Amino acid sequence: MNRKPRSPLGALHPILFCVGMYVVALFFSVFICSSVFYALNQPEETVEKELAKANMKQMPTVATASTAVLATAMK
User: Fold this and answer.
1) Using the 8-state DSSP alphabet, how is residue 60 labeled?
2) Per residue in 23-70, pLDDT tens?
3) Dist. CA 44–CA 37, nearest whole Å
4) H-run or E-run covering 22
5) What residue spans define the domains of the chain?
6) pLDDT at site 23
7) CA angle 52, 58, 63 (to 5 degrees)
8) What's the confidence (pLDDT) of residue 65?
9) Which pLDDT score, from 0 to 100, does residue 58 have?
10) Number of C-beta neighbours around residue 73 at 10 A
11) What is the Cα 33 distance to its own chain's centre?
12) How far apart are CA 26 and CA 31, in angstroms?
């Protein structure tokens, strides 16, 4: 009966798999935590610019002829 020697890499497969999963989880956790950190700790200038943009987008309400017609119809 001939025995074929197995490669040592086959015996290390479970360990290599665990190390690979650890590296992937570590990468994603660093990415997610840094994203949350930078989202919560923005510089004051950035926050002020975003608020200014939001205020610029808000348009004042303008009365139109159709609203005037509705207002008279409801009286």
Assistant:
1) P
2) 999 999 999 999 999 888 877 777 778 778 877 766 555 556 566 665
3) 15
4) helix 13-40
5) 10-74
6) 97
7) 150
8) 59
9) 64
10) 7
11) 11
12) 9
Question: In angstroms, how far is the first alpha carbon of the chain from the final one?
Answer: 104
Q: CA-CA distance, 35 to 47, in Å (whole number)?
A: 16
Rg (CA), the chain: 32
Return the residue matching tokens 């660093």. Answer: 30
C-alpha to C-alpha distance for 70 and 64, rounded to whole angstroms: 10
Report how far residue 39's alpha carbon sits from residue 33's, in angstroms, rounded to the nearest whole number: 10
CA separation for the pair 64, 16 (Å, rounded): 70
pTM of the entire predicted model: 0.46
